């Protein structure tokens, strides 16, 4: 029996006096791609953050999860004063410091070769997004928890990301992401509609 | 791959310390401004109290320490704010290193750029206030330790208030009561040295404070950061 | 034994406890306070050094003692909330904070009232008063932190951490203030004159301390009941309780 990468049982999330979600059940196996869908404010980000264990005070229920996790939130944790290479090499989340060649490959995959040593502050918003994206091309966690990964990406960028998701799932990892847009990931994609878990 | 070894933690801390120092080097104003603040406020005291050297030199230990305290407070107000806003704190919390250890690189880098510099420059300011040069070793030693303790305590307050709008005043309210023992010990060391007593008791207490602070403060800082990240 | 401890975490049980205790605690507290006050005002002997103005210590000292104890109560509630995730402990901590702060303020004000006739100044920087002042700011800090967060559940967690940090620091602060004071004041003038106190003055003092503790407990229970009422306004058990 494969141990799932993430298992949430009867999870309910509160925010102050309000109950956002209740009775959430989700099981993420390796090779899965899950999209958390729902209207604005329903609690997609809160649920994702509870998976990341960044939110735990107002989270009730059972949650078990593997340790090898990569989380990407709304802000990209990039320092403008550093170069993309430095940002990726010294990313605060990573125990494994990627080698220069791995960084170069990752930046090339997102279409930023030549910009490795530029000042991140001088890049455009789209380019900054791609630097954040390049993290996914480094040897990283098995379980990806991504909050709105498709924002501010152009068509080419979306394509690159979709391909990366599929490759990661194929290699045994898993992706859980929130998004407003529907992603073209074929039959690999499972959608969890959070409307069914709306709290009182 | 899933076990976090000590070597990995050390490597992580080293690389993160390097990152923070790099960032500080690239924004020198963050380093210079507290020192300028220190100087400017020191200047206010002769202007306010009168230029009488005798009087100033009696008050010098207290003035130096109070100003060092305020400069430290200023630094702590900026401590985690940037990282909170650009998502770096989140990533820090996700790292597979205990958060209490993961915050140390930033604290070390901050201290090197603030407390250390302040302590080394302090004899000059002491001179301006008529402080005898004989007590320079005690002055520097006490400030080195005192600024370290104040940074650790201030970081606890900073961790709890980083998510609060305009949390600066709140930080001061939370942290200044905790600074009182440091102020007392620091001025005591200087006064003992100036008037022929034994400054080592006070210095030893400061040393104990640094040790105790290094062990306990990171736990509170990590807990505080996790609370702030819940917002 | 664990069942008893467990009950303390249950809001309906605690509400019921408060309901049962308050009716008899209230009169006892009032009687104790009145007795202590009258005894201290009228029946305790006149101090040979300070005359009758010293009688304010029958309010000042108990207030100070319970103010300090109150901080520990608050921090303990915070600890329970942090470690065992008991929501009621949050409520208890929130209840203790303003009461403790009020006690500290009373201690400070009565200290000033004592100071004026005794030493001629409204404010004297002696060790005890200075420590009280810092304690006051520690309380205010906790209350301010709670108000600063919009999400009150998260706020309670932050306050729990802050109270624990404060608890660890209180002995350090008070010892260092004592140390500071011993340097700057000659030992011949002992402002904190609780060294040799006559038995006839001691008993009313002890009585008042007990009365102040009882008052603290009473106020906490009233506050708890009120918080529980507003928090569980929609719950069945509360509606049933109130309507029966």
Total helical segments of chain A: 5
Tell me the number of helical segments of chain C per DSSP (H or I, 4 or more residues long). Answer: 8
Low-pLDDT sequence parts of chain A? none
Described by the principal axes of the CA atoms, the overall outline of chain A is globular
Described by the principal axes of the CA atoms, the overall outline of chain C is globular
Largest sheet report of chain C: none
Uncertain parts of chain C: 187-192
Helix content of chain C: over 70%
Looking at how many chains there are and whether they match, the oligomeric state comes to heterotrimer
Name the chain pair whose interface involves the most residues: A-B, 29 and 32 residues
Write down the secondary-structure element order of chain A: EEEHEEHHHEHEE
**Helix-residue proportion of chain A:** 25-40%
Rg of chain C (C-alpha, Å): 20 Å
Round the mean pLDDT of chain A to the nearest integer and report it.
Answer: 87
Strand order of the largest sheet of chain A: 5-6-7-3-8
Approximately what portion of the residues of chain C adopt beta-strand conformation? under 5%
- List how many beta strands of chain C DSSP finds: 0
Distance between the termini of chain A: 36 Å
Class by alpha and beta content of chain A: alpha/beta
Total E-strand runs of chain A: 8
Strand content of chain A: 25-35%
Describe this structure in words.
The complex is a heterotrimer of chains A (200), B (231) and C (244). By secondary structure, chain A is an alpha/beta fold. Chain A is built from five helices and eight strands. Chain A has a five-stranded parallel sheet with strand order 5-6-7-3-8, sandwiched between helices. A three-stranded antiparallel sheet of chain A has the order 2-1-4, with helices on one face. In chain A, β1 and β2 (18-28) form a beta hairpin. Chain A is globular. The model of chain A has no long low-confidence stretch (mean pLDDT 87). In chain B, 83% of the residues lie in helices and 0% in strands. Chain B has helices spanning 6-26, 29-49, 53-78, 81-85, 88-94, 99-102, 104-113, 115-128, 136-161, 168-194, 200-229. In chain B, α2 packs parallel to α8 (115-128). The radius of gyration of chain B is 18 Å and the shape is globular. The model of chain B has no long low-confidence stretch (mean pLDDT 92). Chain C has 244 residues and is mainly α. Chain C has a domain at 53-185 and 196-222. Helix content of chain C is 80%, strand content 0%. In chain C, α2 (11-43) runs antiparallel to α7 (199-231), α3 runs antiparallel to α4 (87-119) and α4 runs antiparallel to α7 (199-231). Mean pLDDT of chain C is 84; it is low at 187-192. The chains are: A alpha/beta (200), B mainly alpha (231), C mainly alpha (244). The interface between A and B is medium-sized, with 29 and 32 residues.
